[in-house]
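Entry 14. Ran structure prediction on the chain below.
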Amino acid sequence: MYYSSGNYEAFARPKKPEGVDNKSAYIVGSGLAALTAACYLVRDGQMKGERVHILEKGPTAGGACDGWKFENIGYVMRGGREMDNHFEVMWDLFHSIPSIETEGVSVLDEYYWLNKADPNYSLCRATEKRGQDVHTDGRFDLSDKGAMEIMKLFFTPNEDLQDKRITDFFDDEVFNSNFWLYWRTMFAFENWHSALEMKLYIQRYIHHIGGLPDFTALRFTKYNQYESMILPMVKYLEGFGVQFHFGVQVTNVEFDCTPGRKVAKRIDIIENGEKGGIDLTENDLVFITNGGCVENSSMGSQNTPAPYNTEIKEGGGWDMWRKIAAQDPAFGHPDKFCYDPEQTNWMSATVETLDQRIIPYITSICKRDPFSGKVVTGGIVTVKDSSWLMSWTINRQPQFRSQPKDHCLVWVYSLFTDKPGDFVKKPMRECTGKEICMEWLYHLGVPVEQIEDMAENSANTVPVMMPYIDAFFMPRAYGDRPKVVPDGAVNFAFLGQFAETPRDTIFTTEYSMRTGMEAVYTLLNVDRGVPEVWGSVYDVRDLLDATVKLRDGKKPIDMELNLVEKMALKKVLGKIEGTDIEKLLKEYHII
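Output, structure tokens:
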């Protein structure tokens, strides 16, 4: 497997890999990474669909990319996905996946046309004082010291960031800025999370720093992530005859590990309450989704809280990974990520409005009509003075094809689930859907005497608790996540957010899909380049642009300097006078 960039490799079709007709594939899990692996097996690996088996413990495919209406409970979207124009693997695949809405076009086509016609941007990034605009106005509000703290992290070698926390690099100069308000609520970072992941994120999206305050950097699907991404992939795979096996729990994968060689020998399963197994040969390829950010997630209802279930049990992704990791050090260290759910949990809730009473309060904040079919909030609106650190968003409506035309779906999430609310004096994790809606309505500015009635009769709210949703952000070292294809692996690979691939960032659709593509291309030796991670961090133009925008348009040369530094700067500027370097620095407002 090798990386490439440019159209030469992107538009090429690989030859059929040698020996693929004698191979089969078993994919553990059916999330985005798993489905991507299956798609590349049949598209570029040219494996016969009937030889590809997807083993899924639940009743439907999709993993964390869900969106469903549960009978007598309501609509549920555990999370949302924000896409980037430089998700290279994602677009490499989705240009081949047919739309399930429009004949003759791809998922990429409809997504591209949608976001061209209706570009995303926010008109209100944060509120306070019960629905009042904070007027962040696109500013990061970083002091020179705060900017230098970010620069220090940016230039620290990755090896020196192993097992370090963000608090080891940032103090209140960053934590009290708009930059951190934007960052932590958009990506769900906590102060105690990994400094390495923080750095990788800054580097990965350096080209989007200017679009961070108002979300102009983002793109969204038309419907929820399940209907817009997962269903088209499932239909595509079914068209090839790929075999989906639902209700199959994989409890372990057994390996024969010798120096320089590792072979998957058996998959242990539970099906219909019965323990069983699948014996493997070296021609049987195994793709393992280890860990799981939505493992142990639970759902409440309008009148019941979502249980906080932290116990790791057999048949789940964490227990399976523990059993696998015990067999070889190269298979990672799962307990670096799942040892303390108090550091990794947050909650979401899906609010369905049932009439028009709540809509004016939404409109007054987002300044758009939620029923226009176009961008509504343009990303999350963060309630800056919320004790839960609540944020909420409304994507294009309807979010479900079956959704009533006059109902609006709102996604609410909070990072601090253990803090009492500002109106409902209970932690979010103890609240029913109705109570969570009451807290949200309070921060919208609904009159206090109307809040409970609206939450009960004008909305239906379904809460979800996810104890391990931020597990991948925990401080880690190299080796804590297994490589996508470990050294010496003969017939297996790891997939998803807890597999290691260079330079990309977890908690994105692209990361999951990249691991799927790399796994297939490596094990089948597909002779075509995997698109490299977009290289904006190596583009001096993006670096210069981000430097100025991070300081709200102030030139770096205007930073406070001592006499020696001023003299050195003056000398350097004299040396570049009249050169292309001077022109470039002026173009990007450095000087």
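The chain has a mean pLDDT of 96. Will compare against last week's run tomorrow.
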